[in-house]
Amino acid sequence: MSKAIRMARTGGPEVLEYVDVDVGPPGPGEVTVRHEAIGINFIDIYFRTGLYPQPLPNGLGQEGAGTVEAVGEGVTHVKVGDRVAYAARPNGAYAQVRNMPATHLVVLPEQIGFETAAAAMLQGMTVQYLLHRTAHLKPGDTVLWHAAAGGVGLIACQWAKVLGVNLIGTVSSEEKAALAIEHGATHVINYTQENFTERVRELTDGEGVSVVYDSIGKDTFAGSLDCLKPLGLMVSFGNASGPVPAFAPAELQSRGSLFFTRPTLVHYTATREDLEATARSLFGVLASGEVKVAINQRYHLQDAARAHAELESRRTTGSSILLPH
Q1: Is 170 in a helix, a strand, or coil?
Q2: How far apart are CA 86 and CA 77, in angstroms?
Q3: Pairing state of beta strands 319-323 and 295-300?
Q4: pLDDT band with cut points at 50, 70 and 90 for residue 132
Q5: CATH 3.90.180.10 domain locations along the chain
């Protein structure tokens, strides 16, 4: 028997149960992975609360790294003993061992550790497509990134600097502000002390930014639109404060013919070619040291509920992982 986190109903962290599971052999196109580390992400909270529905009972977690223990019929790109990592559905990464579709796995280079991979795959590949593909940024561009001291934000601060992009980050404390600056943010706004929209206008001499990357949602949406220059791009990629409220397309027109997108990693890595290219780009900056992953919280698998409570209350910085053994 193996251990895993399961939930039979939606709700608070208390719905997460640490249980025994029987993991059978992999089916056709599947691989059995023994996890060495598991990523924790805000999307896991969306599934736990029911904001993102899924059939119940079910597991949680879309990111992990470990070793291949068995391969099913038809699997050719990974073999038993390979070090692998992934960031993909279906949910179920909160487990010591799991079976999953082999198409989601990429082979992990030796110079990248399991913990780094588990913390970086979903967040790092998200930053990769947001900076390289969702917006066509060029050196000297200025962007606004909300939650700059979170796991995704700290990776973005570093990667933006590599690209020569000026990143203005928002944070909720002076400690988090220092962390974002340390990781490469050009300017940081503590939104508990300053109006971030007004401050962005000051920092850009009234011009506004080319792109806003907003994973907060409801609380920051209107202010984020007001930070954009004409023809700017609003990238809404999360709902930490709740879903973005309905709005009329005229809101984009009146602010300067703005563009709006709601992207997700699933679509940007839907083909094998895109998945491997995105992972290869991420592994490159990790291996070179240009981007470092700040794993500031480690929890045992059985403490997943505490991990969720601390992430949800914004008591964490950088990345958080679960250790299954």
Answers
A1: strand
A2: 14
A3: parallel
A4: very high
A5: 2-121+271-323
Distance CA 249, CA 219 (A): 19
Q: Which top CATH class is 2-121+271-323?
A: alpha beta
User: pTM to 2 decimals?
Assistant: 0.90
| pLDDT tens, position by position, 171-190 | 999 999 999 999 999 999 99
Q: Would you list the DSSP string of 262-310? A: ---HHHHT-SHHHHHHHHHHHHHHHHHTSS---EEEEEEGGGHHHHHHH
CATH topology of domain 139-262: Rossmann fold (3.40.50)
- The Cα 290–Cα 35 span in angstroms is 26
Tens of pLDDT, residue by residue over 275-291, are 999 999 999 999 999 99
3-state secondary structure (DSSP) of residue 45: helix
3-state secondary structure (DSSP) of residue 141: coil
For every residue of 66-134, which 3-state class applies, written as one string?
A: EEEEEECCCCCCCCCCCEEEEECCCCCCCECEEEEEHHHCEECCCCCCHHHHHHHHHHHHHHHHHHHHH
Residue 248 tokens, joined: 């009329």
Angle ∠(225,229,234) on CA atoms, nearest 5: 40
